[in-house]
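Troubleshooting: if your tokenizer reports a length mismatch, compare your output against this known-good record of 172 residues.
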Amino acid sequence: MKQLVITATLLAMFAGAAHAKHRAVAPARPLSFSQAISACRAWIRTHGEPSFDAFEKPGERVAFFGTAQARFTFEKCMNANGQTVDAIPPATATAPAPVVPPTATPLPAWYGPRFLAACEKYGSHALCTCGWAKVQQRFSLEQMVAMGNANDYSPLAAIDAECQREIDANTF
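Known-good structure output:
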């Protein structure tokens, strides 16, 4: 039963996520240019390209280091946060492709408390916290919706087992 806690919780949560997608990606409020750079840089780094970097230059310009996919994702993120990035320079380095596709929507942060509340009905706080952290790192909203539409959550089964091993070994 413990092995299916995360899978069962996500099944219940993401069954209707396709309709919530547009609400999930809307920013709570417009970000300043500096705030948007910081937020987008952090998102790209935590979603598959930890070597990506971006910083503000005088005159609301930006410089960055990363792959073409990361640049595309960065520009898309900046636009979604009300900022434009003109004349993005060519890639200055080649890094491995990100785990999450460049057009993927990260799982919204507000899903976390909902997930934990639902998950803790079936499993421990440690298992649920570990599971949510790994799901956020590995899957996009589109991937979760696709799993729900196909009613196939088998990609999540490994997370249950992985978290349980980490808890048993006191490494989480």
